[in-house]
Amino acid sequence: MIGYVTLGTNDLARGAAFYDALAAEMGTKRMYEWDSAIAWGEAGGAAGIGLMKPYNGEPATVGNGVMVALEAKDSAQVDRLHAAALANGGTCEGPPGPRGEGGFYAAYFRDPDGNKLNAFVMGN
Fold first, then answer.
1. Cβ-Cβ contacts under 8 Å for 12 (sequence gap 6 or more)
2. pTM of the full predicted structure?
3. So what CATH class is 72-124?
4. Which of 6, 18, 56, 74 is most buried, by the most CB atoms less than 10 A from its CB?
5. Hey, which residues does 38 pair with through a beta bridge?
6. Distance, CA of 10 to CA of 53 (rounded, Å)
7. List of residues 6+ apart from 100 with CB closer than 8 A
8. pLDDT in tens, the chain (124 residues)
9. Does 1-67 match 72-124 in CATH topology?
10. What pLDDT, on the 0 to 100 scale, is given for residue 44?
11. Long-range CB pairs of 20-29, under 8 A, 24+ apart, other chains included
């Protein structure tokens, strides 16, 4: 199950206006906001979407800053998903662990083709 999708941007304010309008139409709102990213959706709801400046500091392009997030049931499953990814040709983009505030626990990895994914759990 997809938990959320992250898209890259070079102009967060411009992108935020666009996604705020879409979110309002869909009856949702911003869940999280920090200097380089905004996420829309509802905790425990359907898949959400995040908009962010690429973590590596390079310009956002199609693919750079794009990531598919897989919602896990607990932190142990995040750990297992990360291990399975690495055992099957994936590469590590960030080991399992807590990220930010609010009990967000995640691991980041790329598939053998270089597509970025993560496994995460909230409120763990």
1. 36, 37, 38, 51, 52, 53
2. 0.70
3. alpha beta
4. 6
5. 33, 51
6. 6
7. 34
8. 888 888 999 999 999 998 998 899 888 999 999 999 999 999 888 889 999 999 999 998 877 888 888 889 899 999 999 999 999 889 999 999 999 888 999 999 999 888 898 999 998 6
9. yes
10. 85
11. none
Tokens at residue 82, please?
């990360």
What residues pair up with 30 in beta bridges, in sequence order? 40
Structure tokens at 80: 């297992």
Instruction: Report DSSP letters for 43-84, one per residue.
Output: TTSS-EEEEE--TTSSPPBTTBT-EEEEE-SSHHHHHHHHHH
**What are residue 16's phi and psi, to 5 degrees?**
-60, -40
d(CA 106, CA 35): 20
Indicate the domain borders of the chain.
1-67, 72-124
pLDDT of residue 105: 97
The tokens of 65 are what? 């800053």
